[in-house]
Amino acid sequence: MPAKTAPTRTFIYGRPVRASEFMDRRDTIRTIFNRLRHSESTAIVGEPHIGKSSLLLKLADPATQRTYLGEDAQCVTVNLLDLHPIGSNYAPNAFWKEALEPLQQYSDRDAATASLLERAAQEGYARRSLERLFNHLGRDNQRLVLLLDEFERLLLHPNFQDPAFFALL
User: Fold this and answer.
1) Residue 14: pLDDT band by 50, 70, 90 thresholds?
2) Secondary structure (DSSP) of 37-94
3) Spatial CA neighbour of 157 closest among 64, 92, 60, 109
4) How far is Cα 84 from Cα 152, in angstroms, rounded to an integer?
């Protein structure tokens, strides 16, 4: 009777894999980047430990962005936020401050972006100030891409029950 061999595992269990360890899912990655290229929101949902966080890490990888977006990668600022550890006092202002943080590097080259970021912070990240900022970025052919790991934590959080917050996203 021939000896049975254990099946080969194509993933690392227990932690998200780094971009360099990521295997396959080229079609999925291509689809997501095409959706981002067309300014479409995308949700990645599934059971725990199927690779959602690993996929987000792969999408956040600059080399992956260059591979799938080409020159358009220079127009994208990606911010991967892990929402798993947020506490009961986490609020929309803290979210927006964290979400917009990578734009500070872009604002160093663009005084208008710097001014709009400062104004948004002063106004407590009010809807209109954020719309002005995002409209400016769009006119400048720039995009902020938020990769939100454990997004459902916001959906269930008592400080995020205003539908206007999610509409702005």
Assistant:
1) low
2) HTT-------STTSSHHHHHHHHH-HHHHHHHHGGGGGGEEEEEEE-TT--TT--HHH
3) 92
4) 9
Q: What is the pLDDT of residues 38-81, one digit of tens each?
A: 888 888 888 887 788 888 999 999 999 999 999 999 999 999 99
- Whether 20 contacts 52, CB under 8 Å: no
Of 27, 38, 49, nearest to 76 by C-alpha is 38
What are the pLDDT digits (tens) for 144-162?
Answer: 999 999 999 999 999 999 9
Which helix (H) or strand (E) element contains residue 147? strand 143-149
Alpha-carbon span 102 to 72, nearest angstrom:
17
Nearest 5°: CA angle at 84, between 116 and 81? 30
- Phi-psi region at 6: left, alpha or beta (left = phi > 0; alpha = psi -120 to 50): beta
- Residue position matching structure tokens 């127009």: 75
Residue 84, exposed/middle/buried by CB under 10 A (0-12, 13-18, 19+)?
exposed
Q: Report the alpha-carbon distance of residue 140 to residue 126 in Å, rounded.
A: 21
Asked whether the beta carbons of 80 and 18 are under 8 A apart, the reply is no
Helix/strand/coil for 149: strand
